[in-house]
Design a protein that fits this description.
Elements: H1 5-8, H2 10-14, E1 23-27, H3 33-40, E2 44-49, H4 52-60, E3 69-73, E4 86-92, H5 102-108, E5 110-120, H6 127-153, H7 172-182, E6 187-191, E7 195-201
Parallel strand pairs: 1-2, 1-4, 2-3, 4-5
Antiparallel strand pairs: 5-7, 6-7
The structure holds S-adenosylmethionine.
C-alpha cells in the first residue's frame, strides 16, 4: 500500500479521544483501518462509507475488540444522523468529497463535550501553505521509499479496491473561513503531509436549536 498519509496521523487523532470508551462515528471509513484502531481503545464504532466494496473490505477485516464496529454503506451528505449521539466523530480524508457545511450535521450529532476531528485536504492558498508543501515533498518521497522497501522485503501487499475519489480540494483560505463560521471555537492546524487537522469540541451547554 505504500506510505499512507492518513494512517500516519492515527496516533495524533487517537490523542483527541474524550475520556471513557463511548460511541464513535467514522465518516468515509474506507477499508476500516481507523475504525479498528478506535475499537481497540474500547469504543463502539459506527463506520460509514459511500462505497459498497470498501464497506465489504472493512467488514471482512473484522474488529480487534474490545469495542465493536458496525459498518454501513451510507452517503454522509444525505444520511440523517441522530442528534447528540456520538462522543467522537472522525473524518479522515473524506470531508472534501462532500460540501463543507456537512460539518454542521456532524456537530449536531456530537454529545455535549464530544469531539469532531477532521483530517482534511485543502489546496494551498497562502505563502505559508506553499512553503509547507515544498518542505513536505522530499520528506514524503523518502518516507514512501522506506515503506515501499519494507513491503517488498515482506512480500508486498494486496492493492485496495478503488473508492470514489475527487482530485480537487477546496482552498485552505475557504476551509479556515468556513470552519470559524460553522464550528466556533474549533482549532485548525496544518500538518506536514498535505493535510490539515480541524478539531471541534462541543461545549457542554451547546445544544442544537
Ligand atoms: C481517501 S478515502 C479515505 C478512507 C479512510 N478514511 C482512510 O483514512 O483510509 C475517502 C473515503 O471517503 C469515502 N466517501 C466519499 N464520499 C463519501 C460520502 N459522501 N459519504 C461517505 N463516504 C464517502 C470514499 O468512498 C472513500 O472510502
Amino acid at each position: 500500500m505504500g506510505f499512507n498519509h492518513n494512517d500516519h496521523y492515527h496516533p495524533l487523532l487517537l490523542d483527541l479521544l474524550p475520556p471513557g470508551p463511548g460511541v464513535a462515528l467514522d465518516v468515509g471509513c474506507g477499508a476500516g483501518r481507523f475504525a479498528r484502531r478506535l475499537a481497540a481503545t474500547g469504543m463502539h464504532v459506527e463506520a460509514i462509507d459511500r462505497s459498497g466494496p470498501m464497506i465489504d473490505l472493512a467488514r471482512a477485516a473484522g474488529s480487534p475488540g474490545p469495542g465493536t464496529i458496525s459498518y454501513r454503506q451510507a452517503d454522509v451528505a444525505t444520511q440523517k444522523l441522530p442528534v447528540e449521539a456520538y462522543d467522537f466523530i472522525s473524518c479522515l480524508a473524506s470531508l472534501h468529497h462532500v460540501p463543507f457545511d456537512t460539518v454542521t450535521k456532524l456537530r449536531d450529532a456530537l454529545v455535549p463535550g464530544g469531539v469532531l476531528a477532521v483530517l482534511g485536504l485543502g489546496r494551498p492558498s497562502t505563502p505559508g501553505d506553499y512553503a509547507r508543501a515544498l518542505v513536505a515533498s522530499p520528506v514524503n518521497a523518502l518516507a514512501r521509499m522506506v515503506v515501499y522497501a519494507g513491503e517488498r522485503l515482506n512480500g508486498g501487499i494486496d492493492p485496495l479496491p478503488s473508492a470514489p475519489i475527487v482530485e480537487t480540494y477546496p482552498p485552505m483560505s475557504r476551509i479556515r473561513h468556513d470552519a470559524a463560521r460553522l464550528l466556533p471555537g474549533s482549532k485548525l492546524r496544518n500538518l506536514l503531509f498535505f493535510r490539515y487537522l480541524l478539531v471541534y469540541r462541543k461545549e457542554e451547554d451547546d445544544h442544537p436549536m
